[in-house]
Amino acid sequence: MTQNRESLLEQLPGVADLIRQIAADNSSGAAEILLRAVEVFARVGESKGQTDVDLLEAVCAALVRAQPDMAPLINMDAEARDAADSADTTDEAARLASRAATQFAERAAIAADAAAGHAVALIAEGAVVLTHSRSSTVMDALGKARKAGRRFSLFATESRPMLEGHAVAAHAARLGIPVTLVADGAAALMMDRIDLVLVGADMVTSSSLINKIGTRMIALAARERGRPVYAICDTSKFDRRAEIQTPAAERNPSELWPGAPEDVKVLNVYFEETPLDLITGIITEDGIRR
Fold first, then answer.
1. Phi, psi at residue 231, to the nearest 5°?
2. Which letter does DSSP use for residue 89 in this model?
3. Do 87 and 148 share a structural domain?
4. What H or E segment, with its residue span, contains residue 197?
5. 251 and 200 in one domain?
6. ω into 253 cis (within 30 of 0)
7. How far apart are CA 64 and CA 37, in angstroms?
8. Could you tell me if 222 and 157 lie in one domain?
9. Among 78, 97, 114, where does a domain finish?
10. How confident is the model over 17-29, as pLDDT tens digits?
11. The predicted structure's pLDDT at residue 44
12. Which of 53, 79, 114 is the last residue of a domain?
């Protein structure tokens, strides 16, 4: 946040802190981030007489900057802005923006659940699945398949630097799914042992899928060995902007190497683009788009 915008946000109790927490979150998926964004808009909506046009604009802009690689946050922001534009007063604008954000998150949750349901058909009896990073929608699909009585096994990558693959493996084990944790760099070695790759997505553009770093490497390895790669992602993650900037935000270098020598540059990037021609299909609430 710039100093001027940050000082504006401080006018609303807790809002600036919530946005800073969203920006610092390096393990939650888009679904969890959306719920926290709803809380931000809820506080704005409750701020009678405290919100003006500049403050509402500052909140919207700050949320998008907090997690610029997550399309649902961008799309929620757009709907909140549109709703606010139809208001006659600033108080009404704040309330309408809050309501629009809540409705967007509710629709996204329903759509994600439907997408997970469609993905179950891909998980055949006895299948071996590989997943990378932690997608709540992928985990939901695995859970639905297990609940339906499907027996299958899972390879989960560590998903560095934050190692969210540990949580994936632990959750799969609790569901009764035989699971093996592997290093990210070992994913290519697993291709002869698996039947399909299932990943989530933070954004889908007209040409690429944006997901955790390492997704492209896995997709390339899968293509080489003839294994299908599916992304489970509802349409709230489709980027509808006319101009899209390639995500390349650098994160805290100490996550890769705490106490690195001063003359060593450490580049820590969370997200990357995977061309859509490496993806077999995208599973949305409407079914599989190939």
1. -105, 130
2. S
3. no
4. strand 196-199
5. yes
6. no
7. 10
8. yes
9. 114
10. 999 999 988 878 8
11. 85
12. 114
Domain interval for residue 26: 3-114
DSSP 51-73: --HHHHHHHHHHHHHHSTT-HHH
Is 202 designated active site?
Answer: yes
User: Are 164 and 280 in a shared domain?
Assistant: yes
The one catalytic residue in 69, 184, 202, 234 is 202
Distances (CA, A) of 105 to 26, 87, 98, 267: 20, 21, 11, 33
- State the Cα–Cα distance between residues 267 and 83, nearest whole angstrom: 39
Backbone angles phi, psi at 98, to 5 degrees: -65, -45
Say how far apart CA 137 and CA 109 lie, in whole Å: 9
Residues in the chain: 290
Same domain, 30 and 141: no
Are 211 and 182 spatial neighbours (Cβ–Cβ below 8 Å)? Answer: no
Judgement on whether residues 208 and 73 belong to the same structural domain of the protein:
no
Does the pTM surpass 0.70? The reply is yes
Q: How far is residue 278's CA from residue 115's CA, in Å, rounded to a whole number?
A: 20
